[in-house]
Amino acid sequence: PVTAVRLATINTARYFGLEKHGAVAPGYNANLQVLDSFSAEKPSMVFKKGELVAEDGQMIEKPRPKRDIYIRGSVNVKWLKKDDFKVPVEGDRVRVIEIIPDQIITGSGFYKTPEVGGFLQSDTSRDLLKICVIERHRATGRIGKGILKGMGLKSGAIATSVAHDSHNIVVTGVSDEDIFKASLAVIKMGGGIAVADKGEILGTLPLPIAGLMSEMSVEKVDEVLARLLKVTKGLGALPRHPFFTLSFLCLPVIPELKITDKGLVDTEKFEVVDLFYD
Fold first, then answer.
1. Residue 246: is it exposed, middle or buried by C-beta count within 10 angstroms (0-12/13-18/19+)?
2. What does pTM read for this prediction?
3. How far apart are CA 72 and CA 210, in angstroms?
4. What contacts 24+ positions apart, CB below 8 Å, involve 68-71?
5. What is the rounded (10 degree) CA torsion for 264, 268, 270, 271?
6. For 37-78, what is each residue's pLDDT tens digit?
């Protein structure tokens, strides 16, 4: 047990150069966990900077921010219209982001272009969904557009402002109407997650702090996320965590094909690539 404690405390602190952490001694920060025994699963007391902050699994006092949080109003989007999601067809084949189950890496493939009336359109029979990334920091009006395979939606759309690492708004869905509605819901909330179907909003999770964090308790966020997950699964979503899966489709440093507000990115070549391919 002593070796395990040393590995988790002083050894780790020394490795990362944290000079005032990792030991109970003069000159060290008094951030301590007190255990009744080495076999105890939970600490009986927790100290932060020498002050008792928790005892027997209960906080002594609910922590408060050291300063007010003003990181709001981070969603700045140029006036959005449904037609902004239209994509004229420019080729017989289209480059497709392929979701790999339980992975943040993706595949890349070429498929016959799904179209209706000369415009790119989702094709649920082949699990090909339109995916878009809306720039949301400087209202540039940029919208990256592509096709996604593996999300499984048969109807509706899902959108989120948690989109690593630029955290623009990413949305995927069956119809432009629902893609527009879900995106608009996220914008109106000042950031968050939204699910739409048949022109109606089925559920939302507001994330007003930088478009990334909630003001609600962890328990409440978990409850709302569970409801959104149930609704999204009802629309046909295949990934275990569709919102997390969606958020990583924008990270252009992880193979193989990702999407940003500037379009599709081949992460192996580090190049923006065309959507259509002949």
1. buried
2. 0.79
3. 5
4. 69/209, 71/209, 71/210
5. -50
6. 988 889 999 999 999 999 999 999 887 766 665 678 899 999
